[in-house]
Hints:
The structure is a single chain. Helices cover 64% and strands 12% of the residues. The protein contains eight helices and six strands, in the order βααββααβααββαα. Strands 2-3-5-6 form a four-stranded antiparallel β-sheet, with no helix packed on it. The longest helix has 67 residues, at 92-158. The two termini are 36 Å apart.
Amino acid sequence: PGSGPQSHRSGTNRTKPKYNREGAVHRGRSENFSIGAAEENLRSAEGWRKAGRGTFGPSLDTSYGYSHSQHSDDDLYNWKMALTQDVFSGFSTLAAYQKAALQKDSSAASLSKARLDLILTVQQNFFMYLKAGEDVRSAQDSYNRLAEQLRVTQSFYNVGLRPHLDVLQAEANLSEAEDVLLRARNSVQVQRVRLNTLLNLPLDVQPEYTGQLDFIPFMGNLDQCLELAYRQRPDINMAQKSIEIAQQDRTSAASGFYPKVQGELAWATQGDKWTADGNDSRPTEFSEWSVKLTGNLNLFQWGNTYYNVQQNTHNIARLRAEEADLRQEVAYQVQSRLLDLDNAAKRIVVARKGLEQAREAYRVAAARYRSQVGTSIDVLDAQAKLTAAEVSLTSAQADYLSALAATFNAIGEENANLKQIG
């Protein structure tokens, strides 16, 4: 339906790619920038998790110093190496690592949600493109019928069988049909551009999107869909991870109630030269090893730790309430999508029957007009109803497939072909 905008680049000779619905979904999932951003966010979270894992191990530090005393006029060089290890940190180190691991899981769920939303957007725009193509075909058929009606009316007028008013009315209806056809072709171009954007296609590529608004039965019931949604929806997973992250924050805040214990194994040397290897008064035993175990406990901080724990406790309660509200919203989404799906399926049955009746009514009206027993108004009215019936069926088919895609999105299932569940 309609040709795409021509490229203004010279020398471009690309093969025109073709995408069906599944191909468009796969292309969008691999090339869309929003998915790339979510993938980078996941890699960033993995880096944070690995960094948190490193805090469990010991750290090795070294220091080198120089000092000069004014009164003794002595130079002193010091060099120290120390291996330190947190023996006990009030569970804050463990909580920080677990929080980083949960953040990675949340980022993975965020990536899954981005894919789900993109798949739905691509599929629905693909169906809108197919609908626009069907609207062009319907508008073209309407234009052809009205052009034929004008030809017949003009012939009757030429032999004095019809008044000039019938000719004028037929011409006006033909002009209106042409306007509808032009707008329908423009809708195809707009939808093609939208799909190209979602699929991240170069500007000089005009792909061909192929497919039909076929009926695809959906076999799932409400209970099955709700079970899948609660188990698969990434936003529910993200809400659960947020609760677990908040619990780790509370553990970190509560670490202030516990002592901190740290061990150190150190080696130090000093001297009056830059090599720090002793001096004239101490030619030997200028270096030594040492082992130290240090404990620290904050006894009083004006309730800071206590109120931090309370704040995190209330935050956990808030997140749990939000998760419960999200589950209610998910239940509504699933049920409403199934209702939309059922309604669109019923509309298809009614529209098909209406189209058959409209076609027969137009055939009869056109035949009666040619036989001089009907009026042009009867033909034009039947033609308008036939066009409306075609558009109604196309809309019902597109709405059904869009509702089907939305249903799979509501249950959290990445489904490119829309032909399976679970």
